[in-house]
């Protein structure tokens, strides 16, 4: 049955568009892993593939991103997966999947040690499955061809300090003094989330800025002499850069502006560019982050607030090298989240999408999972149309979501493709025992 949207649909501004027919002609049903072949073909030779999610606690988003990532690694020669996670934690998992000495006996053990809230984002059975697959894959590769796993985020100031001090204690005791000097500057503000430092910076604007810049400069100056393990040197420099940008982030956090968001996303792009440089001229990167990071900010109301994001910056910097962004979303289901920051994680119901939202329109089509491609036909017909597009964070209050969980989005310019899942289910955290203490059925397609 065709559905025509006329003047009573505010998204289409009084125009008559057969949205049902338009989407059907520019999408395919998502039934199993074979359905992804067309998507992989359309990605082509892109060097950057950005895989989103509409929440941080949905099983199906992790499942499909895993399968896409496996296909990109096996068929397209991608070099690493970089995620919206803390660098030190993810670097430990990187060492495990590459089978470095003393890197842990299992992915479960490594991931179970992830203890920063929200722990479930990476300490989950879905990531265990991916990590064990990567370990098995890497065991068959030459050292230079092993796939990496890294965190892009800026939040790990204290963990990065610990990593630097431990490394310099063995390699450069003199430079270690700079690390200890910067660490001691931060010590009075150790609440782990930066709130105390942020408040103090309103009275002393520079606070520890000079100390962390001095530390980064000293590490960069001495790095050529730390030549025993190139990846460990890269890890050292990255931790120093995190400390510099985390200090800037905390100072900006106290202001009611977009500055802290922009510092964070620019840091993630800096990290991604560093990883591409480290892996060489032929490197390719897979990025896992929330839709709000990987979908181009210029296609949302974020731009009016002076905000940029990873998707926008990567497209601006690397469009000629090939950038392909894939958004994810669902109509209804369940999700893991907390009702406030630091709250106990819980399974929450995701209500039916609100009327006229992007997810609502896809559900009305035929309530089937599908991959929608943002073709020229889609852009020609929907190029100036905005839909509400659901975004669920780690803090979620379902009954209030209509007031703050829908981002006005020009979908056809925000992504290159969109994976719609009609009903989704909650992620499986490691810190909650699965039924019967058995591994739940979260391993995608038998992996």
UniProtKB/TrEMBL annotation:
<dbReference type="InterPro" id="IPR007815">
    <property type="entry name" value="Emycin_Estase"/>
</dbReference>
<dbReference type="InterPro" id="IPR052036">
    <property type="entry name" value="Hydrolase/PRTase-associated"/>
</dbReference>
<dbReference type="InterPro" id="IPR014622">
    <property type="entry name" value="UCP036794_erythomycin"/>
</dbReference>
<protein>
    <submittedName>
        <fullName>Erythromycin esterase family protein</fullName>
    </submittedName>
</protein>
<dbReference type="Pfam" id="PF05139">
    <property type="entry name" value="Erythro_esteras"/>
</dbReference>
